[in-house]
């Protein structure tokens, strides 16, 4: 009986629970729907509130960054104005500098002082009061300011650094402007002009001191160290801030900002939740839910339409950018390739004309006026080429300072010639950069589609124009050349020669010939010059004129020098073994060989006596361009006991001062100077002057190209030390040299200076 009563109670309780659940099921469903609606609405409100808050912060930050950029650029313009005044009168002195600086310095500028440093040492300051300690500051010796000063000098650009601790006390931003003086031929570095920017005033004038935002400024977009943040703290960049930048030609600052009390502090979300909950309770949950979904669906569809429209415009913009050069606005190489692959002929009988254009003096402008000057040249060139285009013509920039002009004609030859002339004339006109005029000029190569090759491999047409351009540049600047089949044959021949020369190095086909050098007074052998010859398997023995250009273009001239050096030292050892003492062997060394990193290590390991080895440096090597490398390599070579000789002296325009700086043991006068001394007194005086220079510097003079004994007598009377030429001995193989020495009757040659 007791068990039955318990079972009945359990059944009654279960029925009651089921009944309540059924009764409250709609209410429970409505409550769940309402909660979901409130939750979704709250999140949406949070996102909108945060977006609005970020938009407000972004607007205020944009205003501050714009003020910063405007203030900094204004200060830089004032500094550039003062720099221009110094360039006009570089020896003005302190009084003149103070007057000029006082006129330039504006009351509303954040600049508080100037410092002029001729040759990197501060000599003039303005105002003088309070800045006396800065006078005499050598930027090259000051550890804290040297890097920025050298950067401004080496890059030729304005450099902004800071905050910097000043020698006169305090900290400030420092703008450094390199000053150059035009001597009529080139820009000469005068020194640096520095402007001191008052940091508190810059911040105050830019609005940093009157904002309710938490702001930090860094010199890098994503700083990871407190040292990289000079305003505010690093933690600001870690709080998902709004980011802006101050872009200047002399630097870039990154600004990060957020509300001072953080995001979402005043979004009123609590009130919103209350009203949303009341609304959800007052409206039938299913109807609200359906309405919400419908509205959301409509918004989604509209957003998708907007996104689709934006994607179409973005794709069109990207397609345009991919086919055009960003700097000049002209079509680019990809556009030209597409045009060639699918030629849009205006008329079925038209043939394509391609003109390849290369600026002649662009590198000089880019080196002296910086990238801004180079960009001005490219934009001006593009504008002039665009002015020459007709309805169906195309002017394109295909890279660097190279352009292509494409046109169409049923009779391409006269039109191509006229277009080439117009292009050369247009690009020869003066370009003005910063008020100064420059003539850049251009070389052009012309090729057109032939009647027999219509629609066949138009890509070859651009290669033909390139070959013609190469021919124009070889002939000189400001010229036009037309492609011919002879140019193609020459290019093929050069390619075959290069391939054969590569194989010649691998097969050891290069041999060393030797031409003796004689004491001018006794005609004893004083040494030999090792010369490269190519024992070609089909063409026989070839002189250096046949393969030196190929070796240089292949970058194998250094390998050739190494091989001839090894062969010369082997023969020197062989001669010693035969009792035929040759005092010295001279070997040519190229600029590429001098620049090899392992050169000194290889020379240190040479098996032969280095005190009988001499390296001949061609005067055609650019001593001024290679000066830093030569300053290290040449003394190290001489320390190994290897002498230095300057070859072909007088053929180029190398500075005698730069040549003598390396203290060569000998100067070899070129044969073109020696040849006319028999009939020309002026040439004899020239040779005599060179000999006197050598004598004053304790440098021996070698005359090459001694073709007659009369040459030898005149050179001896002039005081020349050594003679070399066909009148005394021709270049010969090692075996021939051994026989020559035996016939001369000197088993042991006498050493000479």
TrEMBL record:
Membrane-crossing residues? 21-41
* Major localisation: membrane
Q: Where is the GGDEF domain?
A: 350-485
- Where, subcellularly, is it found? Membrane
Q: Does the keyword ATP-binding apply?
A: no
- Pfam families registered for this protein in UniProt: CHASE, EAL, GGDEF
Q: Which InterPro entries match?
A: Biofilm_reg_signaling (IPR052155), CHASE_dom (IPR006189), CHASE_sf (IPR042240), EAL_dom (IPR001633), EAL_sf (IPR035919), GGDEF_dom (IPR000160), Nucleotide_cyclase (IPR029787), Rev_trsase/Diguanyl_cyclase (IPR043128)
Provide the CHASE domain boundaries: 118-208
Q: Where is the signal peptide?
A: 1-21
Q: Name one GO biological process term.
A: signal transduction
Keyword presence, Phosphoprotein? no
Q: Which is an annotated GO molecular function term of this record?
A: catalytic activity
GO cellular component terms?
membrane
Q: Which UniProt keywords apply?
A: Membrane, Signal, Transmembrane, Transmembrane helix
- Annotated PANTHER family: BIOFILM ARCHITECTURE MAINTENANCE PROTEIN MBAA, DIGUANYLATE CYCLASE DGCP
NCBIfam families, sorted: GGDEF
Q: Under which name does UniProt file this protein?
A: Sensory box/GGDEF family protein
Q: Which organism is it from?
A: Rhizobium etli (strain ATCC 51251 / DSM 11541 / JCM 21823 / NBRC 15573 / CFN 42)
High-level lineage: Bacteria, Pseudomonadati, Pseudomonadota, Alphaproteobacteria, Hyphomicrobiales
């Amino acid at each position: 009986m007791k068990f039955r009563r318990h079972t009945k109670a359990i059944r009654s309780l279960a029925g009651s629970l089921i009944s309540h659940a059924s009764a409250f099921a709609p209410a429970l469903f409505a409550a769940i729907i309402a909660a979901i609606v409130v939750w979704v609405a709250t999140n949406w409100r949070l996102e909108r509130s945060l977006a609005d808050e970020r938009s407000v912060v972004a607007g205020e930050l944009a205003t501050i960054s714009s003020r910063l950029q405007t203030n900094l650029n204004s200060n830089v313009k004032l500094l550039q104005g003062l720099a221009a005044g110094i360039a006009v009168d570089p020896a003005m002195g302190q009084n003149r500098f103070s007057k000029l600086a006082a006129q330039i310095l504006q009351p509303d500028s954040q600049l508080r002082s100037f410092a002029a440093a001729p040759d990197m040492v501060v000599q003039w300051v303005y105002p003088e009061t309070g800045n006396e300690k800065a006078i005499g500051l050598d930027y090259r010796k000051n550890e804290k300011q040297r890097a920025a000063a050298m950067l401004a000098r080496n890059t030729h650009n304005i450099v902004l650094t800071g905050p910097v601790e000043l020698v006169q006390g305090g900290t400030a931003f420092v703008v450094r402007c390199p000053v150059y003086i035009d001597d009529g031929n080139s820009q000469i570095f005068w020194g640096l002009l520095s402007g001191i920017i008052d940091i508190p005033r810059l911040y105050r004038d830019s609005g940093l001191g009157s904002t309710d935002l938490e702001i930090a400024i860094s010199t890098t977009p994503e700083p990871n160290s407190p040292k990289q943040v000079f305003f505010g703290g690093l933690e600001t960049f870690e709080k998902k801030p709004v980011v802006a930048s101050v872009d200047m030609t002399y630097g870039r600052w990154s600004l990060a900002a957020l509300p001072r009390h953080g995001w979402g502090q005043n979004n009123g979300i609590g009130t919103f939740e209350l009203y949303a909950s009341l609304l959800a309770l007052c409206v039938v949950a299913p109807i609200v839910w359906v309405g919400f979904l419908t509205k959301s669906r409509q918004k989604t569809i509209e957003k998708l339409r907007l996104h689709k429209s934006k994607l179409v415009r973005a794709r069109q913009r990207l397609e345009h950018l991919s086919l055009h050069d960003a700097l000049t606005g002209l079509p680019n190489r990809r556009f030209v390739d597409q045009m060639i692959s699918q030629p849009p002929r205006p008329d079925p009988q038209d043939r394509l004309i391609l003109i390849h254009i290369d600026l002649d003096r662009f590198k000089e402008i880019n080196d002296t006026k910086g990238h801004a000057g180079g960009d001005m040249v490219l934009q001006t060139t593009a504008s002039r080429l665009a002015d020459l285009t007709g309805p169906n013509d195309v002017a394109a920039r295909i890279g660097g300072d190279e352009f292509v002009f494409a046109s169409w004609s049923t009779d391409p030859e006269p039109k191509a010639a006229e277009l080439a002339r117009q292009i050369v004339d247009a690009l020869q006109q003066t370009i003005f950069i910063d008020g100064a005029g420059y003539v850049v000029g251009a070389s052009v190569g012309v090729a057109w589609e032939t009647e027999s090759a219509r629609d066949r491999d138009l890509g070859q047409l651009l290669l033909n124009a390139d070959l013609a351009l190469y021919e124009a540049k070889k002939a000189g600047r400001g010229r036009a050349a037309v492609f011919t089949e002879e140019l193609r044959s020459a290019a093929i021949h050069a390619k075959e020669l290069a391939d054969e020369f590569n194989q010649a190095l691998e097969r050891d086909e290069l041999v060393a010939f030797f031409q003796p050098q004689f004491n001018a007074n006794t005609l004893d052998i004083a040494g030999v010059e090792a010369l490269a010859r190519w024992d070609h398997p089909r063409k026989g023995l070839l002189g250096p004129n046949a393969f030196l250009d190929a070796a240089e273009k292949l970058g194998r001239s250094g390998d050739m020098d190494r091989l001839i050096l090894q062969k010369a030292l082997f023969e020197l050892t062989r001669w010693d073994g035969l009792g035929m003492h040759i005092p010295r062997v001279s070997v040519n060394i190229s600029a590429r060989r001098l620049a090899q990193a392992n050169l000194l290590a290889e020379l240190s390991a040479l098996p032969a006596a280095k005190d009988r080895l001499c390296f001949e440096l061609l005067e055609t090597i650019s001593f001024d361009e290679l000066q830093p490398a030569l300053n290290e390599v040449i003394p190290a070579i001489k320390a190994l006991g290897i002498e230095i000789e300057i070859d072909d002296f007088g053929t180029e325009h190398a500075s005698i001062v730069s040549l003598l700086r390396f203290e060569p043991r000998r100067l070899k006068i070129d044969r073109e100077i020696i040849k006319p001394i028999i009939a020309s007194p002026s040439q004899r005086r020239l040779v005599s002057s060179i000999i006197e220079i050598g004598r004053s510097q304790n440098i021996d003079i070698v005359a090459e190209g001694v073709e007659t004994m009369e040459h030898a007598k005149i050179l001896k009377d002039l005081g020349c030390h050594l003679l070399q030429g066909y009148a005394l001995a021709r270049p010969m193989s090692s075996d021939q040299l051994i026989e020559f020495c035996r016939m001369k009757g000197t088993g042991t040659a006498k050493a000479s200076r």
